[in-house]
Every structure is written in C-alpha cells, then in structure tokens.
Amino acid sequence: MDLTFGLITGILFGVLLQRSEVIRYDRQLGALLFQDMTIVKFMLTTVLVGMVGVHLLVDLELAKLSIKPLILGGTVLGGLTFGVGWGLLGYCPGTSGGALGEGRVDALAGIAGMLVGAAVFAEAYPTLKATVLTWGDYGKVTVPQLLGLSHWVVVPVFCLLGYALLRWIDKRGL
Q: What would the DSSP string read from start to end of 6-43?
C-alpha cells in the first residue's frame, strides 16, 4: 500500500508540474535569470504545504520524521552540482522526468547525466565520506530544535514569511 500511495502521489505531483508549466524550458531559464518566478512560487508553496502536512501527520502519529544530518560540506557540493546541472540542461531532476513524460527527448540527456552522476557518487562515496561529508557536520537537527521552540511556533512563522515572499513576487510581476 505504501508503494501504491507513493506512485499515486508521484503521478499527481507530475501532473501538477506539467499543469503549472514549471517543466517548460522558458520557465526554467526565467528562474535561473530571476525573471520568471513561476518555479520559485510553485516550489515555495509545495514546501510550505508539505511542512504543515508533515508536522500534522507526525503529531497525529500517522508518520514519523526521518531527519538526515546537516552536513554543510555535502550540502554545498551537492547544491553546486545540482545548480551546474540545472544551468547546463535547463531541467532539474523532477522537471526532466516531466519533460520526458511530455515527449521531450532532450530530457534523456539529463536523465542519463543523473544516472552517471549517481554512479560517480557511488564510486567516490568512500573518499567523500572521509572528507567532504565530515565538513560542518551538525548532526540531526531541525530549525525548531535549533531555536528551542515548538514546531507549531516555527511553522506558522515560516508560512507567514513564505506568504509575504509570494505576495512580494506577485507585486513585482515576476
């Protein structure tokens, strides 16, 4: 049942990606140039709704958080790799899958690149584990834990800040 639910929600997410036009190349380029914030608005809304939903499910004991450690070295290296790939291809991993689903064969290059990158990462992992993945290891922490506050204090603040950012983006016509 868990896999079926994951498949259904994945398909629904893909449909939302397609319907909101975030898998279009011009939207991707616009986001990279800070000229079209459609992707930013879509992802920020997704994060905010997900944040509320996850914490609600955890509090109702219908889900369990699996917090990964905050390791700055890996986060910075991963972010740079992601950004370079997105800039070169014009798709991020999720949108390349959506673009392929729409029949855009150029997305195959990105998907092949992701597979090659995963293989390179797997081969380099022992070295990375001893070096980059030790830099700035803060352990398994969350923002509410860092602030010493309940997540139901932090989540509404993030939602209000996110809403304010969305309003600002809209007023700027981005």
A: HHHHHHHHHHHHHHTTTTSHHHHHHHHTTS--HHHHHH
H or E element, residue 126: helix 107-130
In the chain, where are the structural domains located? Answer: 2-171
Angle at 96 between CA 44 and CA 43, to 5 degrees: 5
- Helices 107-130 + 93-101 axis angle, to 10: 150
> For 119-163, how does the pLDDT look when each residue is reduced to its tens digit (9 = 90+)?
999 999 999 999 999 999 999 999 999 999 999 999 999 999 999
The CA distance from 106 to 91, in Å, is: 10
- The three-class DSSP label of residue 174 is coil
- Encoding tokens for residue 127? 């070295």
- Sorted by sequence, the CB contacts under 8 Å of residue 132 that are 6+ apart come out as 73, 74, 77
Entry pTM: 0.80
